[in-house]
Amino acid sequence: MFWDLWKRKHSVEHLSIALNKIVKVFQKENIEYALAYGTLLGIYRDGHPIEGDDDIDLFIPQKDWDRAIGVMNKHFFQIPQPILSPYFRGFSVNNVQVELYQAMFYKDRIIDCWEKDVHKKKDLYPFRSYGDYLVPRDVETFLVHVYGKDWRIPKSGKDYPQHEKELADFVCTKVFIKKPCLGWSGVALIILFSIILITVITCINIRK
Description:
Layout: H1 12-29, E1 34-35, H2 37-46, E2 55-61, H3 65-75, E3 77-78, E4 88-93, E5 96-106, E6 109-112, E7 117-120, H4 121-124, E8 128-130, E9 133-135, H5 139-147, H6 165-178, H7 184-207
Parallel strand pairs: 2-5
Antiparallel strand pairs: 1-2, 3-4, 4-5, 5-6, 6-7, 8-9
């Protein structure tokens, strides 16, 4: 993906510094968050981020999403994306890619529209304290849901299973249609494509 150009493997120390910077900002601004995916796995299983991980993953509740993005833009660099999804943002913090996933509340479910995965609300929310961080309400249920019953065994790869994908597609697509969002890089790509298209059409007409 376009924003993967910013990804590289990092040490535990480097990941911890970036994570703590973000948490400090969120705490100051009273923004709710929860560790997610590989970041949660590392902190819960190993007591620290996973050595060699290439990003930091955080859930942001739907109610705090716009404010969280505003605060992150104020303090850190937002990684350009061709099209800004309403459900996902990437930032660079100390050269570590930080990925924010919107936790969308829908009836008794919480949907991660970016990963197209659905969780039971009671398993994720309300978030709770775990050491210096906030985590999903039932961490082990979340980790089993994402990584399987053998989540304690270190593995490579990031192929997350998708649960209730049809529900995620239905809800997320409906919201995305209401809230389309182009980033500045997306606008630039559209302009570039338009120039190329006009040039091609002009050349064809000249040859005729």
